Amino acid sequence: MTPAPLVTICIFTWNREAYLKLAIQAALAQTFTDFEILVMDNASEDGTAAMVRSFTDPRIRFHRNPYNRGAPGNYHLALKQARGRYILLSHDDDVMGPDLVARQVEAFRQHPALVAVTTNVSIIDEHGNPVLARRNGETADEIFPRGVYIHAWNTRHLWLPFPTLMIRRPLVRRLCRPIVWYSVSCLADIFAMVRLNRVGAVAYLADPLLAYRLHSQQAQFRYDQIVPPSALHTQIAVLLNKRPEFRKYVPMAMLLLLKYRFQLALLRSREPLDGLRRLRREIGAVVRKHALRVHRVMRKIRQDRRDPETAALAREYAASPWGPQISVATLLLGAGEPDPAAWDMTTDSPFHRWLLALRSGSSLCAGLPARGIRRVAIMGSMFNADLLAMDAARSGLTVVCFLDSNKLRCKKTLNRIPILPPQWLEEHRGEVDAAIISSENGMGEGILRMLISFLPAGSSLPVFSWKTLANQERGG
Q1: pTM of this prediction?
Q2: Helix/strand/coil (H, E, C) string of the chain?
């Protein structure tokens, strides 16, 4: 057997022969050369095996599962078969930049205490055309000490791109159990980062060193995305609470857990927008119980004057956008605000401005009818989309449909409003006066491009982010 390489590049694949060929070519083009490529084929039914065997580079190893083990089972097997001291987990549809592996190995050498290294990514479409130069806006490298990335996820929703995850071999056992991945379904990548950061420091390189491909066959468009967020944040709260040194991060974790439990109840509702009595009772009970728990923890933190970090954490909690979003939801449902709702209203954000509009008796969409907009379609975060639908109904608007790329949700309904694929706009543009993007992070630039691509050339249909309306509240 040849000596073990320093790095194993694992490429996971299933029925994406054309994309896989590009991924292998990019891996072979790395400026760092002490590696093996382990292609993990999850029982593909296309020409994957023949294509991989057409490569003659001896550094390529090919394993084909006799049956589809699911993504977690494929990860599990790859981690056991990898021989490198460092293991990079990547996907068949993404394209590595030539310096990805070299930069990551150098980070490990410069910081021996690191347990994992990830990098920023650019975004490309299904044809390889550039969409975004940087997926994350951060421009400086960061090292997250133990527990700090977990808190950064809860406060910033900073996604460390999983196709760039390189870990040390001794950590394989912590990630090898498939139950770790199955428990949170399509959010296993985030949970893996959480578990790693619970063990040690995680590095994030701000340069985009991999092209991350967006296309309709991705897991995020095929899996349930209602239950996993609640399961993920339950696990995060439990993990934080088990370590005394991490308990100061628990209030923010609980606040986010409340948001996703709220989302779970809301997106499972089958009541119409004008008759949400059962949901109102359920949400009222959940919010009151959970919010009071959060505030009890916060009181304990404020009382602990010995820790200089507590005052900053208390301010961070009060200024979080998740609290105002929860209050927006309870007000729209007619359930009242959580008691006590201690969100710091001096902190300006789109959710704060939306909450202020509702507190004043207005609504976010109140000005749209005056602009001739009475029928809308909404696309983006489904939780926020449903809140926007409630707000629109308050303003006398008709929500014609939700637009969603997730195949599991398409052709279903939410609050008796149909959920349709974004391609619906191609033939039904005349049935709506505007399309509103409900993304919570950023302005939804990717969704904007997608929607515009389905409109006829020269179409005058307004397409804008809900944050545009929130910004008008600030200006008004």
Answers
A1: 0.82
A2: CCCCCCEEEEEEECCCHHHHHHHHHHHHCCCCCCEEEEEEECCCCCCHHHHHHCCCCCCEEEEECCCCCHHHHHHHHHHHHCCCCEEEEEECCCEECCCHHHHHHHHHHHCCCEEEEEEEEEEECCCCCEEECCCCCCCCCEEECCCHHHHHHHHHCCCCCHHHEEEEHHHHHHHHCHHHHHCCHHHHHHHHHHHHHHHCEEEEEEEEEEEEECCCCCHHHCCCCCHHHHHHHHHHHHHHHHCHHHHHHHHHHHHHHHHHHHHHHHHCCCCCCCCCHHHHHHHHHHHHHHHHHHHHHHHHHHHCCCCCHHHHHHHHHHCCCHHHHHHHHHHHHCCCCCCCCCCCCCCCCHHHHHHHHHHCCCCCCCCCHHHCCCEEEEECCHHHHHHHHHHHHHCCCEEEEEECCCCCCCCCEECCEEEECCCHHHHHHHHCCEEEECCCCCCCHHHHHHHHHCCCCCCCCCEEEHHHHHHHHHHC
